[in-house]
Design a protein that fits this description.
globular, Trna Endonuclease, Chain: A, domain 1, 22% helix, 134 residues, two-stranded antiparallel sheet, 4 helices
């Protein structure tokens, strides 16, 4: 949909496609590096991705802003996800920003591409989390 570089400059943008799915995108400080949409399901899935090498992670403020953008486009909150992407858990970017990750978001590491860190808020029965196979 849209991509920006440091300094909020939009690098590539597809306003026509964004409008077709109901999004009105304006380059601002909350706009993530990537907006991905899975149009295959009856209810499309919208994924906001921030590559932390360029800016901070998806913080609570940014998650709320992006969720509002999606809601204004008609997306149900259950079909919207926010992901902060990092090179590695040992990378300075992650160590510097992990405290700012929003609850209800995800973190992904290029060094562990088949793993996903889920930041879940609230009480969950342990049985719902098992099995915890590494």
């Amino acid at each position: 949909m849209s991509r920006r570089s440091t300094g909020n400059k939009v690098v590539a943008r597809d306003d026509e496609l964004a409008a077709k799915i109901g999004l009105t995108i304006q380059a601002d400080r909350d706009l993530p590096d990537l907006i991905l949409v899975d149009l295959g399901p009856a209810d499309p899935l919208l994924l906001f991705v921030e590559v932390v090498a360029t800016d901070g992670p998806i913080s609570e403020r940014r998650r709320l802003s992006l969720t509002e953008l999606a809601a204004n486009g008609g997306f149900d909150a259950s079909r919207v996800a926010c992901l902060s992407a990092y090179a590695d858990r040992d990378a300075p970017g992650y160590r510097k920003t992990y405290r700012h990750l929003a609850w209800g978001s995800f973190a992904w590491f290029a060094s562990e591409p088949d793993k996903l860190l889920i930041l879940r808020e609230g009480v969950v029965e342990l049985d719902a989390l098992l099995p915890l196979d590494p």
